[in-house]
Amino acid sequence: MASTPKMRPQLSGNGLGGAVYESYHAGIGRMIGFRPVSLELDFERLLRWQHEPHVIPFWKLNISEQAYREHLEAFLADDHQTLYIGLLGGEPMSYFEAYWANRDIIGRYYDPHPEDQGIHLLIGEPSYLGRGYAAPLLKTMMRMLLQHGRTEKLVAEPDVRNDKMIHIFSSCGFEWSQDVELPDKTGALMFASRERLIGGGFLD
Predict the structure, then answer these.
(1) 3-class SS of residue 178
(2) How far apart are the first and last CA of the chain?
(3) Residue 78 in contact with residue 32, Cβ under 8 Å?
(4) Cβ of 180: how many Cβ atoms within 10 Å?
(5) Closest CA to 105 of 2, 185, 1
(6) Residues 6+ positions from 47 with CB-CB distance below 8 Å
(7) Which of 37, 62, 143, 158 has CB atoms 3.0–4.6 Å from 165's, for a disulfide?
(8) Is residue 189 predicted with pLDDT exceeding 80?
(9) pLDDT tens digit sequence for 46-101
């Protein structure tokens, strides 16, 4: 069996806290980028996003400032995942978690390959909702993760109540496998193989 990856591969970046991955999306006419979450730079922003009405039902992290700080510190220290701020035209507006599925709880619900990667995401700023940005952001994150050449499958498990997010993952090439009972939700377990994504033109 292949060895379990410990750290996410380094991608292009300017070394100054900027985006580690950027791509121009012609469909929306905007540059999409991702940079790692910084506790110092992003704590207040992420705390505010977690208290937005459209985020609360699905993330359930509308907790106290101290409790969220402890949560974020723990997540940043957990090397099975990497946290990103999603940028649109250089402006922070979304949050992503990329994780190694075999070291995540979701790995208990299917037979994961050590290189499978999973994705969580939210659009944080309300002014960006309903404007068709979620799918371009997700596809850009998918392309970034597939730069890890040994990853042949991407994984998602959106809340089964979150019809919009399930639709977005489906439109980006994910296929439903089964509903799974996770500690904090019933998730729709979805997969997207590299072969399907590239062969079906989902990442174009």
Answers:
(1) strand
(2) 32
(3) no
(4) 17
(5) 185
(6) 65, 68
(7) 158
(8) yes
(9) 999 999 999 999 999 999 999 999 999 999 999 999 999 999 999 999 999 999 99
